[in-house]
Amino acid sequence: MFIRIDHVMICVPDLPQGIEQYSKMGFNIYTGGTHTGKGTHNAIAFNQDDYIELLAIRDQAEYQMAAGRSGSPDGRLTDFIAAGGGIRYVILQSDDLVAEVAAMRNRGVDVSDAIDGGRRTPAGQQLRWKAAVLGPMNPLPIIFIQHLTPLEERRKQVPVAGNHPNGVYTLERAYIVTHDVEAAAATYAKVLGMPQPSLRRGTVIMSNMAVFEVGPTGLGIVQPYAPGPAADALERRGPGPFQALYRTTSMGAAARWMQEHGMPPPARGVRNTGEQAMLVTPGDACGAYIGFVGPE
């Protein structure tokens, strides 16, 4: 079964600059290593059980060769980054990906096999996983992963896992914007094998939203009803992931860290739950909206 959102993949044109920007946001983020044969490299900021991944092209020739292979989810990454970058995929974690792929195929979903993958960290640690991607009949911006390396071992790949200056400790929700929330939610329900959620009214992103509860995390499929972050993302980039919302122990501490490191104060809003939330905009978050929610 799918047990949570594992991470969001934020694609950036220059990895060191992306690391610098997310450090200014208050994340403990470190070089993750290279993807052998794919021409890409990444950086990782761990929370308790999930993480942020920044991804960039390291070797253009190697990337182009890999992107041409059948079943690769990496095609058109160059175009995506050139158009501004941001969140390209939401990655869902499974505890049995082979079984999950079989179940999806029984529902008529076009999905790849669960393929072995891996990455070597700069310190030489080998990380292993299985991953599956959706085929052209279901072109959704989600990827499926089953980690073969235990969580505590994976957390050792970075010098500091968690304990971010911004107080973030977990991902609460990731949002994907669409032109038709009802139709899109029906497709996601089929792919995920979950009931289609009823619509809620999001007051910060100004959207009607169907939220799939994936373990402790939410996958929100949204359609704007008024100008706001979702409408901006839809106009700029078209349908796709645009925001990740994180729980913090202190929004005030997060905002102060950002201002002390030269970032503008994040915009504030009130969620439909009555909670305060704040947003770092794409110009300061490498093409993504990054949200924070929690006590002041």
Task: Characterise this structure.
By secondary structure, this protein is α+β, with helices and mostly antiparallel strands. The protein folds into two domains: 2-155, 2,3-Dihydroxybiphenyl 1,2-Dioxygenase, domain 1 (Roll); 168-293, Roll (2,3-Dihydroxybiphenyl 1,2-Dioxygenase, domain 1). It has helices spanning 15-24, 60-67, 77-82, 97-106, 151-155, 181-192, 229-237, 251-260, and strands spanning 2-11, 30-35, 40-46, 51-57, 86-94, 115-120, 126-133, 142-147, 168-177, 199-202, 207-214, 217-224, 240-248, 267-270, 276-280, 289-293. The strands form two sheets. An eight-stranded mixed beta sheet has the order 2-3-4-1-5-8-7-6. It has an eight-stranded mixed beta sheet with strand order 10-11-12-9-13-16-15-14. Strand 14 and strand 15 (276-280) form a beta hairpin. The longest helix is centred in the middle third of the chain and has 12 residues, at 181-192. The radius of gyration is 18 Å and the shape is globular. The mean pLDDT is 94.
Walk me through the topology.
Layout: E1 2-11, H1 15-24, E2 30-35, E3 40-46, E4 51-57, H2 60-67, H3 77-82, E5 86-94, H4 97-106, E6 115-120, E7 126-133, E8 142-147, H5 151-155, E9 168-177, H6 181-192, E10 199-202, E11 207-214, E12 217-224, H7 229-237, E13 240-248, H8 251-260, E14 267-270, E15 276-280, E16 289-293
Parallel strand pairs: 1-4, 5-8, 9-12, 13-16
Antiparallel strand pairs: 1-5, 2-3, 3-4, 6-7, 7-8, 9-13, 10-11, 11-12, 14-15, 15-16
